[in-house]
Amino acid sequence: MIELKVGSQLVRVDRGELIGYEVEGHEYIHQKGSPGWRQSDTEMFPIIGPTDEAGFKVATPRGEAAQDQHGLLRELPYTLESQDEHQLIFSKSYDAGAWVRNSKFPLKSTAEWLRWPYEFRFTKQFRLLREGLEIKLTVEGEADMPFMLGYHPAFKLYTHSPVVLAGDKEIPLKAIMDAGSRALEIPNCQTLTLQDAEHITIKTQGFGHFMCWTEVENMVCLEPIMFYPYAVSQENLAEGMVALGEEKREFYIRLLPRILQSSPDAPR
Predict the structure, then answer these.
(1) Could you say which of 47, 87, 109, 266 is the most buried, measured as most Cβ atoms within 10 Å of its Cβ?
(2) How would you label 74-84 residue by residue, b for 16+ Cβ within 10 Å and e otherwise?
């Protein structure tokens, strides 16, 4: 486990997973072992959404790929590439066609092995700024590789009536819970604010949409996504993919606590 500190901010990262973000002693991240979810953050790549109804297959120009829910990236370990006082960089690399064992098998999935017909490199950078925490995700690989990407952080809740703000729309926790496993879609949105005991804004770049999920009252996942997977059937999930192109693609998530924005020391 690695810690980053700037002023009253403390970030804790375990093998590439954000397991803690405290500001002035207030923890914003869902703690592993608490009810709701066994993780605190992860990435959804190269697909978002379930694939069980499609036989764990996703169509690509190079044939069918074996994928479980949210893709195979989460099954690959991160390597720490660099570290300094305010920044951590982790990476994962994948060789085209390599078989990866599915950790959900056999208890939660019948697909034992997963594979993707394209090679790629995925980088996750944590950078602690005066105004908050920036997470940059970078995708590099073959130009014709189709993909979609989502980031899946979980936030700890303290009050009985937290609200998510999307523009002028207020979304109560009950609406997110009522959406169930499909998650609540918030289309054409790059910024959300979670109003709880302490407020935090999630500002994104490169994704375009959000979906929100929880099944408990002590946490909520506010997930920037490129594509809402339930807009199509599982057999047609490839419709939501885009080609990587010749250049690498960069995606940003900034966690901006209100405590820091109201501080006299915060940047103007």
Answers:
(1) 47
(2) bebebeeeeee
